[in-house]
Amino acid sequence: MKTETIHTKTEATKQTERICGSEAIIKCLIAEGVDILYGYPGGAIMPVYDELYKYQDQIHHVLTRHEQGAAHAAQGYARISGRVGVAIATSGPGATNLVTGIADAQIDSTPLVCITGQVPSHLLGSDAFQETDIVGISTPVTKWNHQVTKASEIPEVIAKAFYIARSGRPGPVLIDITKDAQFGELDFSYEKCTGVRSYIPVPQTDPNTLQAAADLINDAKKPMIVWGQGVILGEAEAELKAVIEKSGVPAAWTIMGASAIPTSHPLNIGMVGMHGNYAPNVKTNDCDVLVAIGMRFDDRVTGDLNTYAKQAKVIHFEIDPAEVNKNVKADVAVLGNSKDSLAALLPLLNKNSHESWLKEFKDLYDIEFEKVIKNDIHPTKEGLTMGEVLKEINKQSKGNAAIVSDVGQHQMIACRYSEFNITKSNITSGGLGTMGFALPAAMGAKMAEPNREVVAIIGDGGYQMNIQELGTIFQQKIPVKIVVLNNEFLGMVRQWQQLFFDKRYASTEMTNPDFVTIAKGYYIDGQRVTKREELADAVKTMIDSKDSYFLEVCVEKEDNVFPMIPSGASVSDIRLS
Amino acid sequence: MNEEIKTFTFSIYTENNIGLLNRISAIFQRRHINIESLTTSQSEIEGVNRFVIVVDITETQAKKIIGQFQKQVEVIRAYYHRDDETIYQESCMFKIKSDLLFDEPQIQNIIKESNARIVTVNKEFFVLEKSGRRFEIEELRQELNKFGIMQFVRSGRIAVTKEEMKVTEMLSAFNNQ
Ligand SMILES: Cc1ncc(C[n+]2csc(CCOP(=O)(O)OP(=O)(O)O)c2C)c(N)n1
């Protein structure tokens, strides 16, 4: 990039000093308030590591055991704190190992800045040792990316990277920096970026759309809200709560929106989507006004679009204009960030309550309780269920834990049964469904918010995808709690095989190692629970532990997660068994 | 649901950065949409590039794709237009054996009538250039094909729109913020 083509606005200039590119990178990170970053060294990024060594009293580098772990740890850090997560890796395999985490951050709108080393610029395109076109590879999964080949470009590009990652709809940014740019000298000064001329982070809100939205809500007889992560990313929890309470509109959430409003709130009617609650899914096709707030109508939320909420007027509060009318046509689209839009909506709403409508949700909940929930959380059969483990964790952590789940049955159970009092507490790979996410993400989350209880809920399959991060947890003494719900199967896939492939369990059964011994090999204390009588004490020991603790719970092997909307079916065809 | 497929011309104003072409073309590739033609050049604004891309899709798709373009950090503004909303041209070149100019007197007439222009002539070959609508170029190609064409090449579509695109205003609004 020629510097004259960067059209950015920057804040306050400082005095310049002559330093090398790699030191400039560290100074930029410190100036952006980065306290922790995750990464793995190698040839093309060594100059940066040399500076990290010199600056270790100001910025803490965490050596993960795999670059994928670094990316997910940075995601966990960002998801629990709202701050930008930073991951760093060498060229070639180091860079490509970050890609899964970057793709995950892209689809779940997580602010990340990833920095990769690159071969010296004179070797670019020569198939040099550990050269890979990471800018090309990461283009479809980054909000923005850029290759730096001159030391002098570093401050401006990094400033722009942080600005883009965190502004508007957040997302991952990758900066690839050649080794000669790291070695080269520059006159360093740092100015934060405050604008990019081609980029509108937050679209303007048209007051007419707000009035139209308020009119629809005020006139509705059977209104329903579905909120998503946009509420959390926009820090609009209080505004949403005020809107819900004033309008009396029952509100459901997508997986990514979980925890924005406490689980116990009387107007919180649960989760929508494939394994969501019965009432909000069924009522999606019965409501007269559907108010979508900071959610993107993912196919796992909507099921078959041709039979999704056709009877309802749809209001869509959204920061990203590309999401409006992408999957579901909005009758009223309110562009803007959720915090400002909801605050502006509030005075336009009539105070209301929808008692009989709310009662309909309650009735459906009772059906779901009888048919599903009761057996999940108060089982009478001998084998342990995932649901009762979650129930116990809720109890012992008093609903104040951040739950970091992996992908599979345990994830759905965790989202369904976790009780949340605090926002930003449901950290999971929603859009990409990345097995292996939870262990490193929990680690990052705990480091970002050391005062919070962080519990990872992982399946025996996904655990083994990034199990090496136990090494990081041990070395860094990260007091994260790890729960493996072991059903000796790739449970979610097995469930589909049972329901849709005549029980042909192709490659889903797992012969597992002794997980407790493995944890102990990393000097992490732990135990295995196989009986109901042992569960409460074991969870208590885990929660009470000042250090990291590993808990394996051997659960029923062939339990299924219900309710379920079979893929491609309508939300109202949700199955209870 | 069966919406009509039409030809749309996208005009995308962007920063002049390496890699943007990748982002733009990936938007089509992901959706399995074939690009009929793609041209990029300097625009009327100093330092701002303009892509002109032609695709055959439905208007609903076109709208969604505009959203995807505008979402790119380095895209300043994107528009789509139907054919009747733009003035558009393609240009092409023919390389033909010089002998034919003398052996086949018809060729001279064809050149004249088609408003093609002779760019260069030497002993072996001459080069013909023609700008116009696709059907005009196609007509000419078919005429000349009878005599033998050594090389033929046609550019992507370039287009200006009848409506004003307020990109300059947008950029000065940023500068005045
Ligand atoms: C990286 C990756 N590979 C494959 C899948 C497909 N997949 C989704 S759920 C699942 C099974 C997960 O099994 P486990 O971790 O044991 O959790 P369980 O479903 O048993 O709770 C698989 C293989 C995935 N989501 N991610």
Automatic annotation (TrEMBL), chain A:
Residues 210-345 form the Thiamine pyrophosphate enzyme central domain. Pathway: Amino-acid biosynthesis; L-isoleucine biosynthesis; L-isoleucine from 2-oxobutanoate: step 1/4; Amino-acid biosynthesis; L-valine biosynthesis; L-valine from pyruvate: step 1/4. Binds 1 Mg(2+) ion per subunit. Residues 21-135 form the Thiamine pyrophosphate enzyme N-terminal TPP-binding domain. PANTHER family: ACETOLACTATE SYNTHASE CATALYTIC SUBUNIT, MITOCHONDRIAL (PTHR18968:SF13), THIAMINE PYROPHOSPHATE ENZYMES (PTHR18968). NCBIfam families: acolac_lg. This is Acetolactate synthase. The lineage of its organism: Bacteria, Pseudomonadati, Bacteroidota, Flavobacteriia, Flavobacteriales. The gene is ilvB.
TrEMBL record, chain B:
The keyword Amino-acid biosynthesis applies. Pathway: Amino-acid biosynthesis; L-valine biosynthesis; L-valine from pyruvate: step 1/4; Amino-acid biosynthesis; L-isoleucine biosynthesis; L-isoleucine from 2-oxobutanoate: step 1/4. It is an enzyme of class 2 (transferase). Keywords: Amino-acid biosynthesis, Branched-chain amino acid biosynthesis, Transferase. Coiled coil: none annotated. Its EC number is 2.2.1.6. It holds the Pfam family ALS_ss_C. InterPro entries: Acetalactate_synth_ssu (IPR004789), Acetolactate_synth/TF_NikR_C (IPR027271), Acetolactate_synth_ssu_C (IPR019455), ACT-like_dom_sf (IPR045865), ACT_dom (IPR002912), AHAS_ACT (IPR039557), AHAS_small-like_ACT (IPR054480). It catalyses: 2 pyruvate + H(+) = (2S)-2-acetolactate + CO2. CDD domains: ACT_AHAS. Belongs to the acetolactate synthase small subunit family. Catalyzes the conversion of 2 pyruvate molecules into acetolactate in the first common step of the biosynthetic pathway of the branched-amino acids such as leucine, isoleucine, and valine. Dimer of large and small chains. This is Acetolactate synthase small subunit. The gene is ilvN.
